[in-house]
Amino acid sequence: MAIHPIEYRYGHAEMKAVWNEHTRLSKMLSVEAALAKAQAHLNYIPGGMDEKISLGANKVTLDRVKEIEDEIHHDVMAVVLALAEQSDDAGKWVHFGATSNDILDTATALQIKDALLILRKETAKLRQVLIESALSHKNTVCAGRTHGQIGVPTTFGLKFAIWASEIDRHIERL
């Protein structure tokens, strides 16, 4: 059940896909697989276990994670147990030395990275609309404003160009 209007009514389709529970699980499993790979590289876990964990990550289903979570009431541990089930003898090395927050924070960072790419793309579209509006209204006169009062006449084109310039700075920050 959705708990926020962005999840079901007002959200952008691509952004909803970044933040849905399937993507969340996928990112958590990617983090667990990357952790195992790094640990195998450093000989913290036996060689080859990382490959089995990575293969297991591709077999975990959201339904199984939810079944486990209903039993144990812990979201991350449900993912760990589901992954361990799918990782054969490597299961005991899943999540080795990690905390729940290690996995959650890293998965969230990956989701934020994906979300920022969408924001950058959509903000660039807005910039283009502002530039087109600046050009189409370059001769449309309007009242200028200064200190909250009407000032020297200006154009809507200039206003749109200023907004486009502000958006450029936002795109740089993204």
From TrEMBL:
Coiled coil: none annotated. Pathway: Purine metabolism; AMP biosynthesis via de novo pathway; AMP from IMP: step 2/2; Purine metabolism; IMP biosynthesis via de novo pathway; 5-amino-1-(5-phospho-D-ribosyl)imidazole-4-carboxamide from 5-amino-1-(5-phospho-D-ribosyl)imidazole-4-carboxylate: step 2/2. Keywords: Lyase, Purine biosynthesis. Pfam families: Lyase_1. Residues 14-174 form the Fumarate lyase N-terminal domain. GO terms for biological process: 'de novo' AMP biosynthetic process. InterPro entries: Fumarase/histidase_N, Fumarate_lyase_fam, Fumarate_lyase_N, L-Aspartase-like. PANTHER family: ADENYLOSUCCINATE LYASE. It catalyses: N(6)-(1,2-dicarboxyethyl)-AMP = fumarate + AMP; (2S)-2-[5-amino-1-(5-phospho-beta-D-ribosyl)imidazole-4-carboxamido]succinate = 5-amino-1-(5-phospho-beta-D-ribosyl)imidazole-4-carboxamide + fumarate. The keyword Lyase applies. GO terms for cellular component: cytosol. It comes from Candidatus Methanoperedens nitratireducens. Signal peptide: none annotated. Its EC number is 4.3.2.2. SUPFAM superfamilies: L-aspartase-like. The keyword Lyase applies. One of its GO terms (molecular function) is (S)-2-(5-amino-1-(5-phospho-D-ribosyl)imidazole-4-carboxamido) succinate lyase (fumarate-forming) activity. Catalyzes two reactions in de novo purine nucleotide biosynthesis. Catalyzes the breakdown of 5-aminoimidazole- (N-succinylocarboxamide) ribotide (SAICAR or 2-[5-amino-1-(5-phospho-beta-D-ribosyl)imidazole-4-carboxamido]succinate) to 5-aminoimidazole-4-carboxamide ribotide (AICAR or 5-amino-1-(5-phospho-beta-D-ribosyl)imidazole-4-carboxamide) and fumarate, and of adenylosuccinate (ADS or N(6)-(1,2-dicarboxyethyl)-AMP) to adenosine monophosphate (AMP) and fumarate. This is Adenylosuccinate lyase.
